[in-house]
From TrEMBL:
Gene: pepQ
Name by which UniProt lists this protein: Xaa-Pro dipeptidase
PROSITE patterns the UniProt entry points to: PROLINE_PEPTIDASE
Keyword field contains Manganese: yes
Provenance organism: Marinobacter salinus
Catalytic activity of the protein: Xaa-L-Pro dipeptide + H2O = an L-alpha-amino acid + L-proline
Record-annotated Xaa-Pro dipeptidase N-terminal domain positions: 11-150
Sites where the protein binds Mn(2+) 1: D252, H334, E372, E411
GO biological process: proteolysis
Amino acid sequence: MPDTELLSLQRDHIQILQQRYEQVLVAHGYDSLLVSAGAAPMRYGDDQSWHFQGYGPFLHWTGLAGQEHSWLLIRPGQVPILWLYQPVDFWHANLDLPEEPWHQAVEIHFREQQCAPPMALTGKLAVIGDPALLAKVGGEHNPADLLADLDETRVHKTPYEIACLARANEIAMLGHKAARDAFLAGGSEFEVSLAYQRATRQREAEAPYHSIIGVNEHAGTLHYQYYDTEAPARSRSLLIDAGVRFRGYCSDITRTTPAAGEGRFSALVQGLEQLQRRLCKMVAPGVDYVAIHRKTHEGIAALLNAAGVVSGLDDATLIERGITRAFFPHGIGHFLGILVHDVAGKRQPSPADAPFLRLTRTLEPGMVVTIEPGFYLIPSLLDPLLSGPLGDHFNHAVIDELRGCGGIRIEDNVVVTGDGATNLTREAGG
Ligand code: GLY
Ligand code: MN
Ligand code: MN
C-alpha cells in the first residue's frame, strides 16, 4: 500500500477513535480525558532508565512509541490536543516528527516541561496512564470501568490499523527469512538475532517484545531469553519468535527450522504446520476462540500418535489425561495490535482446561489474533509423565531423540474479516 493511502487511512482512524472515545466518555459521564504517554522508570539504585515504549492508549492515537512525557487531551466534539515533550537538551535528541496528514486532525504543541500541561477545563476530567506520573494531576485517575471500555475501543481494528499490522508482518518476514538463512549457515543464536535485526532495520529494544531465539534444547523454553554467542557443535533446530513495530503496531511471528538430516523432527514440524494452517482456516466471525484452542489439542493428540511418540492411547484419552497439555502447555494465541498481547481478550476468565489462554471471546470482524500451536519437549512437564502410570505408553527412544530439538512453534497473525479471515503472515510470504 502506498504511503499516501496509509496516511489517509490514518486520518480516518483518528476520526473513528474520536467517535469511539466520545461514546465511552459520554456513557461514563466525563467531559474530558487526559492520556499520559508515560515515561521510562529509572532502574533501582542506578542512574539509567529502562528502554521506553509508550502507554497503549497514547499509541492508539499517535503511534509514537518512543515519545515520553507527552500528553493527549480528548473531549467530545473538540479536536484532540497533543502536547509533545521536546526539551532543549544537549544530552539527548528529540524524536523526529516528519510532517504528516494526521497532524491536521490534532492540535499539536511542543513543550519543555515533563509534567501535565496546564488546562482550563470545566466539568469532569478522567486521567489515564502510569500512576507514578499522575500524582500531581487533578481529575479521576484510571477509573477501572472507564479503562475497560476504552480497552474495548482497541478490539475492532480500523483499516489503518490492519494496514499497519500487515506492514509489520511484511517487515518481520524479511527478518525471519534472514534468521533462517543465518541458522542454516551455522550461525549462533546471537548471530541469528543480528541477522533478524539487520533485515528488519529495527534494534531489538524497539521491538514489541524481546525476540525468542532458541537453538536445539533452548527451543523448548517457551520464552527463552538468552543468546548463546557460539553455535553448538551440532545445530539441530531453530525456533525464532520475533516481531517488529510499524507505526506503533506489532507483529508476532514464530517459525521453526529443522537442520538438514533431522528427518523425524522435520516430519513433526510439517505435521504441526499442517495443523496450524487448518487452525488458521477456522478463524471466522462467530467462531469461539476457545474452540480453536481445543481443536489444537485434538491435532496435537493425532500428531503424538502419528509420530509414534505414544501408543495404545487414543486421541481422546491423550487429551483427557492431560498428555497433550504437557506437549502444548500454552494457549493458542491472543489479540494483537498496539501491544503484542493486546487488551480486552478475556471478558470471561480462561477455562480450567486452558489456564494460559489469553483470549476467550467469540471472533468478530476487525479482530486480529495470533494462531500459534506448539509442540515441545519440556523436561519438567514430560519427565513426570514418563515415570508415571502411563509411562509405558511413551516411546522413550523417540522422545530422547527429539529432546535435543527442543520444540516447535508456528505462529501467524490473522485478521477476522466479514466472511472469514486474512492471514497477514502468509500474505507477507511467511
Ligand atoms: N511472542 C510471545 C507470544 O507469542 O505470545
Ligand atoms: Mn503470540
Ligand atoms: Mn510470538
